[in-house]
Amino acid sequence: MIRMRRKKMWASCFCFAAVFFLMVTLQVITELGNSENKVAVISSLQSGLLEPVERQAFQFKKQEIHSSLKTESDVNHYPILLWWSPLTGETGRLGQCGEDVCFFTVNKTYQHNQMTRAFLFYGTDFGIDSLPLPREDYHDWALFHEESPKNNYKLFHESTITLFNHTATFSRHSHLPLTTQYLESVEILKSLRYMIPLQTKNSLRKRLAPLAYVQSDCNPPSDRDSYVRELMCHIEVDSYGECLHNRDLPQHLRNPTAMDNGNFYKILAQYKFILAFENAICEDYITEKLWRPLKLGVVPVYFGSPSVVEWLPSNKSAILVSSFSHPRELAHYIKRLDTNDREYESYLQWKLKGDISNPRLLTAMKERKWGVKDITQDNYIDAFECMVCNRVWENIRRKEKGWLPRRWSAQVNHLSCPQPETFWFSSSNSGWTSLQEMWIPSFKQSKREAWALRHLVERNRNFTAQEFWTLVFKE
């Protein structure tokens, strides 16, 4: 009996050893296959020669290659996408974009690396003091800029925007539109979580103005404070921010970081109307100033993108300042709605019924490849990186087939805004002074800067700041 048990034990040990030996052998074969495929992708990038069988094997093993990379030398197996503006702060990361893998970094020592294929720029930090020149034929430039022109006016001219091959901006026309960058989802628009019944709002009107205004970025290019200042002469407005301030928030909500705080939402939700004024007037530049009141069940009084009607949840969900010739007329209309419950609620029917009837908005939300405040989805920076990565790989594959590379290019409508304008009734206030002395001259000079930058970049060599400014101010 004891001998039988010993025989079984030895048989078990032998089987375990055989299985272990088999696993080790398979691992060695896999690693050898990985190494061969790494050589294949180098060949693809450097010479464009990759046999069909090798290509198929590489695609199959790409995820394994990605997960097994451990050394600095492995970077040279993938196209490099260099953030010239250090937005991400990553010294080096392999990113998986569908079936494609790219190496993303902010390390500028990779500028002249033979594997570098694209330079990524964050618009706010885009300057002339350092650019990746000379620009090789296979070097793409990609622009990520979600902000308004007040952050960097020279980008908003044809001379500059058309320097880029790939774009992610607030314009619907860009390669990766960010128009809905402040809207989490369609469901959050429909949500009644913060909505206060009209009867309660009418009762709150005894201590609250009909309108709320919350801005701490005063006298921007849109000249919004001038309009609100004039509006205040005709109707009561509670202004919580630093601009035209006349009402205090609780101490714990005065920090700008509290703007997404639930308690702040509850305060704004008490109002019937919120002034939703953008800091610049550009097509498709729509921020949380519009989406916030819509989420809270408050009627936005909107001033900003001329195309905003194409993004609203319904035909009657916001009051547009552009529909009124003077703040006096707008004030009269709001007073009328304030005393007529039926008319007022007509602006909220879409929310009460959960009915978003705008097909453009629904389609944009369904088709966008990134999320907002959603850890289950890529953010828009990830989506931007992957868009460029996928396009770089598309051209690598085209080269393998002996085809010419595809040349993407930005158009003027990917990022354009008109010159700032003052309101005709604002010539006696500080907003008018701000626009006349700062924003309008800034816009005009930025146009000269854009022209000079284009001229120097097309010479495809590094240039000095002195050369640049000499050209800007040249007669």
Automatic annotation (TrEMBL):
It is found in: Endoplasmic reticulum membrane. Residues 80-177 form the Fucosyltransferase N-terminal domain. It comes from Dryobates pubescens (Downy woodpecker). Coiled coil: none annotated. GO terms for cellular component: endoplasmic reticulum membrane; Golgi membrane. Its EC number is 2.4.1.-. SUPFAM superfamilies: UDP-Glycosyltransferase/glycogen phosphorylase. Keywords: Endoplasmic reticulum, Glycoprotein, Glycosyltransferase, Membrane, Signal, Signal-anchor, Transferase, Transmembrane, Transmembrane helix. InterPro entries: Alpha-1_3-FUT_met (IPR017176), Glyco_tran_10_C (IPR055270), Glyco_tran_10_N (IPR031481), Glyco_trans_10 (IPR001503), GT10-like_C_sf (IPR038577). This is GDP-fucose protein O-fucosyltransferase. It is an enzyme of class 2 (transferase). Residues 1-30 form the signal peptide. Residues 210-395 form the Fucosyltransferase C-terminal domain. Belongs to the glycosyltransferase 10 family. It is a single-pass type II membrane protein. It comes from the Eukaryota. It catalyses: L-threonyl-[protein] + GDP-beta-L-fucose = 3-O-(alpha-L-fucosyl)-L-threonyl-[protein] + GDP + H(+); L-seryl-[protein] + GDP-beta-L-fucose = 3-O-(alpha-L-fucosyl)-L-seryl-[protein] + GDP + H(+). Protein O-fucosyltransferase that specifically catalyzes O-fucosylation of serine or threonine residues in EMI domains of target proteins. Attaches fucose through an O-glycosidic linkage. O-fucosylation of EMI domain-containing proteins may be required for facilitating protein folding and secretion. GO terms for molecular function: alpha-(1->3)-fucosyltransferase activity; peptide-O-fucosyltransferase activity. Pathway: Protein modification; protein glycosylation.
